Amino acid sequence: MAVHHDHPRRHPGFRLPSPRRTGTAPASAEVTTASATATSAYALAGLRLVTGFVFLWAFLDKTFGFGYATPSGKGWIDGGSPTKGFLSGVAAGPMRSTFHDWAGQGWADWLFMLGLLGIGLALIAGVGLRIAAVAGTLMMAFMWIAEWPPARHLADGSASMSTNPFADYHLVYAVVLVALAAVGAGTVWGLGRLWARLPFVSRHPWLL
Question: Model pTM?
Answer without folding.
Answer: 0.84
